[in-house]
Specification:
single chain; 374 residues; alpha/beta; five-stranded mixed beta sheet; globular; binds pyridoxal-5'-phosphate
């Protein structure tokens, strides 16, 4: 089945008790047992499992080509749960442009758990190979990355991890499986902030891990989630499930819009650099063209010629773009990324990050042109 069809039908069941086509939303925190003590429906307590969450997991696994999925309260909860399965003494390789929250976890949390995180440029395969230690347990991949839209070779990195006996995890939040299928490229685990494109409407927080194999790691993470409690709520699971059904068409249109916006920005006299993997000038364009299909995503970063003040001024002048952090909704957002990240940010001060939505691209381009032409 093609991805567009799968996005609509994965994990979909007609509710056997009512015939409801839309999935029911089960809010119950507890589930009844029969006189012999056996749960009627396979669930006992909301933190262990619940029907709406299970339905979302059944939909997510085939979308990423995995055997199993677990959903969490947020993308951070999903990633941290994975890191918590590592034994003390582990070494983890993170991309130099990993999503801010995970870099901070590597600096502020992991040392307390006896885990050492090291940042490396993942587009330098020889550098990655040299950074691998006997105690390296996890290779973290993020492509395209947040916020510099760096593109790295997933198949080559997954191979390096496998040869070292380490697990590879790929944060596929920016591309989504509509455009990039990391498990088919060799990754062991796929991570999502479902807060973003999976939800698609800026109204739900969630995270997910999808596993190439249903093995002991899935069991351990299910146990960890049950005990630490970072589960997805039924309503949030339901909203993400609803968002998934339109993922393919949203990604197609938002990616096409982003390409048009990126091309216009590349011509703008106030813009020094545009980071968008769909532009032939992007250093990772060839790799992206090889490992992505159907578009290059809807995230763009740009750097202004006149530095931080010009970037802040352009953001403040936006009229159609909404000044807000996050991404993946139907409305276009603009932010001065270093401000959003705060004092521990390493993002260049002249960088503006755009999340391109479903508006007409000419309206978006007109807004950016007036904002940048102050
Ligand atoms: C690439 C990426 N991964 C993970 C996360 C964390 O997700 P959440 O905010 O749902 O915890 C984010 C959030 O912005 C992100 O952009």
């Amino acid at each position: 089945m093609r991805f567009d069809t799968l996005a609509v039908h994965a994990g979909h069941v007609i509710d056997p008790t009512t015939g409801s086509v839309a999935p029911p939303l089960h809010l119950s925190t507890t589930f009844a047992r029969d006189p012999a003590g056996v749960p009627f429906g396979g669930h006992t307590y909301i933190r262990e499992s619940n029907p709406t969450q299970a339905q979302l997991e059944a939909a997510l696994a085939p979308l990423e080509g995995g055997e199993a999925a677990l959903v969490f309260a947020s993308g951070m909860a999903a990633g941290i749960a994975l890191l918590q399965t590592l034994p003390p003494g582990s070494h983890v390789l993170l991309p130099d442009d990993v999503y801010y929250g995970f870099r901070i976890a590597g600096e502020d949390l992991l040392p307390n758990w006896g885990i050492r995180a090291e940042g490396v440029a993942m587009d330098d395969l020889a550098g990655v190979a040299a950074a691998i230690r006997p105690e390296t347990r996890l290779l973290w991949i993020e492509t395209p990355s947040n916020p510099l839209l760096k593109v790295v070779d997933v198949a080559a990195l997954a191979r390096l991890a496998r040869e070292a006996g380490a697990l590879s995890v790929l944060d596929n939040t920016f591309a989504t499986p509509a455009l990039q299928q990391p498990i088919a490229l060799g990754a062991d685990v796929v991570l999502h902030s479902t807060t973003k494109y999976f939800g698609g409407h800026s109204d739900v927080q969630g995270g997910a891990l999808i596993f190439a194999r249903r093995d002991a790691l899935v069991e351990r993470l299910g146990h960890l989630r049950e005990i630490t409690g970072g589960v997805a709520s039924p309503f949030n699971s339901w909203l993400v499930l609803r968002g998934l059904r339109t993922l393919a068409c949203r990604m197609a249109v938002q990616s096409a819009n982003a390409l048009a916006v990126a091309r216009a920005l590349a011509e703008h006299p106030a813009v020094a650099r545009v980071h968008y993997p769909g532009l032939a000038s992007h250093p990772g364009h060839d790799v992206a063209a090889r490992q992505m299909a159907g578009g290059f995503g809807a995230m763009i970063s740009l750097q202004t010629k006149e530095g931080k003040e010009a970037a802040l001024r352009a953001v403040s002048r936006a009229r159609l773009f909404i000044r807000a952090t996050s991404l993946g909704g139907v409305e276009s957002l603009i932010e001065h990324r270093a401000t959003s990240e705060g004092p521990q940010s390493r993002t260049p001060e002249d960088l503006i990050r755009l999340s391109i939505g479903l508006e007409h691209p000419e309206d978006l381009i007109a807004d950016l042109e007036q904002a940048l032409s102050a």
